[in-house]
Specification:
With about 425 residues, the chain is α+β, with helices and mostly antiparallel strands. Helix content is about 25%, strand content about 30%. The protein has 11 helices and 18 strands. The longest helix is centred in the first third of the chain and has 19 residues. It is globular. The termini are far apart.
Length: about 425
Amino acid sequence: MKRIILFFLLCCAVLSTQAQSKEMKIGDQLPDFLFTNVLNYEKTSFRLSDLQSKVTIIELWSSHCGGCLSSMIHFNELKKKYGRQVQFLFISLDSAAAVEHFLKKRKDLAAFRQPFWPQSAEWKTWFPTQSYPHLIWLDSNRVVKAITASQYLNEKHLDFLLEHNYVKLPVKKDIERFNYHEPFSLLNNEHSFLFAASFSGPIEGVGGQMGKSNLAGGMKRIYATNASYFSLYSMAWQDQVRLTSDNRHARLQLQLQDSFLLGKDEYGFTSRYCFEMIYPEARVGRKELPYQWMRQELDRFFGVKSEVVRVKQPALILFATDTTSSNPKNGSNTITLEKATYSYIKAANLVAAIELFLKPTLPVVYEGPPEKAVSLVLQTKYKNWREMQKDLQKAGLDLKIAEREVPILRISN
């Protein structure tokens, strides 16, 4: 009789282990998982059932993932609005020591006071993923309501879930061991060809990435996955104008009518595309020639004309009041939600910081010694350029508005 009872208990344990080791899907209920050695929270241990929230958002993340850091800042704003209705939980790929180091370095995110926890084997099994951030949406009963990328977490979708305990969003499905260095199309590299370019829609399950790679037989490849038209054109024109999301209003002119260039998908997001161009390295006489080909292919696909024109217009000039040139040392910077601290940074590199923190509608131009290095503290939000001017003046720099001839990317029909 004892043997029968022992065998029964063993079978129950095996079945329980199998149930908890399966991959979780929409509609599955998570076990009442016990978190221990929790960082950055009011409790060092708790169960999922202890969270007194209507919705719990779990983010699988890595400290090396830029998109994860951006999403955390966005989640902080959402937490301020929803309070106890929504709980955030960050499960990292990194070790506990690495997460502690991250929180010490990013004090702005530590102030978020949401639980951080290193990932365990169970979570890797329940929610396997190849790209981050990876979001799991739970209701108050630990039932999985959605598994998405971070861009779908917004007020509209949270409000709907809180009201209806239901939300329909695209499930984030990752492709295991996706090789970014192989062509997306089925090209036979054993047959020689002079040139090939192709477009496709977004590939679900992979992240957005752009770059160049070498192929067999002396072939080169330029590729972009899940990129917006702006990212594609920024890449194609990078040798003539620097385009970023922070300066697009100052450096990009759109003169378009009835163009699907500005199209959106069914969820209201800017349309994304995959692009690749394959060419023989031996055919390239100039290093900028492949990007010229890329520009031609983009224009042909979108039915537009793109060109960099030099326009004389008002610009925001960053200049040095002390023109003494000083070689940069090992520069560093620390950025929080409120301020950015720079040590021995090239003054010319502050153009990007001005665009990031000021969001000017005018192009920003640096005029000064190329190697001049400065140390200073900037706020991350300014009402206008004159507020920033005061901080720059402390480091021997200044701002002014003056007419200059600046390169602008113009896209027209």
